[in-house]
Design a protein that fits this description.
mainly alpha, two-stranded antiparallel sheet, 8 helices, 2 strands, about 50% helix, about 5% strand, TAT_signal, Tat (Twin-arginine translocation) pathway signal sequence
């Protein structure tokens, strides 16, 4: 049997693309969960350059200064899944990014943040913008890393509800006087 040799370049050419990054905020909740500071997310349809541009678009639409790119990458992965399922999505995304570059008179991603946001506001009614925004809102705010970032513990039902998990624990408040509660029937 012939040995298969695959170098990094061949791997990247063979796959749809990778979205790569490094965790910047070393002491945040996401960094505590991560096994290393570097992360990668495999794309099946989106080329790496399109994926990285979309990550920046999602970051500008839903800005959270201290949220790691790794959290935003889940939105790009969701866009990749849509592009895999519907052949019209990838050309729409590529066209939208090209239009942003044309409006910028060069690379949209090289503009400062305020200029990027201003151009996004101009195209907010386009199909491209609606596709990115609609996909990103669901994937961004419904993943465990975002929950960690915001300090949200997730749904209570699978954990037995709130009542027995500290909901009724008001040790940090002084006891209310007895006359503050209505009398029983």
């Amino acid at each position: 049997m012939q040995e298969l040799k695959v170098n990094r370049r061949r791997f990247l050419q063979g796959s749809g693309g990778l979205l790569l990054g490094t965790l910047m905020f070393g002491s945040g909740p996401i960094a505590l969960l991560a096994p290393s500071r570097s992360w990668a997310m495999e794309m099946n349809t989106l080329p790496s350059d399109v994926a990285s541009q979309l990550l920046l678009v999602v970051r500008r639409i839903y800005p959270h200064d201290r949220m790691e790119d790794a959290v935003y990458a889940f939105s790009v992965k969701a866009l990749d899944e849509r592009a895999s399922a519907a052949p019209s999505v990838l050309p729409q995304l590529e066209k939208g990014l090209a239009e942003l570059d044309a409006m910028a008179g060069g690379k949209w991603s090289s503009l400062d943040e305020n200029q990027q946001v201003a151009l996004l506001e101009k195209i907010q009614h386009s199909d491209f913008f609606k596709q990115v925004r609609g996909t990103a809102v669901n994937s961004l705010y419904s993943n465990e890393l975002a929950y960690e970032h915001f300090g949200y513990e997730g749904a209570s039902f699978p954990k037995g509800g709130y009542l027995m998990r500290g909901f009724n624990d008001l040790e940090w408040l002084p006891a209310a006087p007895a006359d503050a509660s209505p009398s029983a029937f």
